[in-house]
Amino acid sequence: MKIRAFTIMEISIALLLSTILIMMCYEFFSIVNREITTQKKNSDNRIQELMFRKYIETDFFNAQGIYLTDSGIVCKNDSIEIKYEFQDSLILRKYILTDSFELLTLSIEYWNDSLRVYELGSIVNKVKLKLLQDDKKLSVELNKTFGSDVYFK
């Protein structure tokens, strides 16, 4: 009676083919995982940039007065005071809670009409920010026109 079985050569070829297939699948999943991680990081950075722009534009344009502080600006309304602190690699928005944005500050210019502002407590109606986020340069420019009541307080 003859027993049916695979030869060593057939088993070796099957193992070789399955090893190649497993290596291809592993490499494919590695590439996909790397791409997903990169896309998530880009998405998170974009969300952070958009949130910063939304907050600072809303606070800037709703403010009844914007004043220069030692670390940034403060946007004041009747009962609200929102502070923006510009640090080297972080921007803090302090209101009830503190929001932080991982944006590298390259340069900041504070203006009142056509004059640069350097004195603490001065009124600011224009801010020019140059920021960096993962090798991507961002520019934010905010302008606000105040009535005479702000200048004579």
Question: What does this entry look like structurally?
Answer:
The protein has helices at residues 8-62, 148-151, and strands at 65-68, 72-76, 81-86, 91-94, 98-101, 104-112, 115-116, 126-133, 136-143. The protein is rod-shaped, with a radius of gyration of 29 Å. The chain starts with 7 loop residues before the first helix and ends with a helix. The chain has a five-stranded antiparallel sheet with strand order 1-2-3-4-5, covered by helices on one side. The model has no long low-confidence stretch (mean pLDDT 89). With 153 residues, the protein is an alpha+beta fold.
**Strand pairing plus helix content: what structural class?**
alpha+beta
- Spatial strand arrangement across the major sheet: 1-2-3-4-5
- The rough form would be described as rod-shaped
Element string (H = helix, E = strand): HEEEEEEEEEH
The Rg value, from CA coordinates, equals 29 Å
> What integer is the average pLDDT?
89
Strand tally: 9
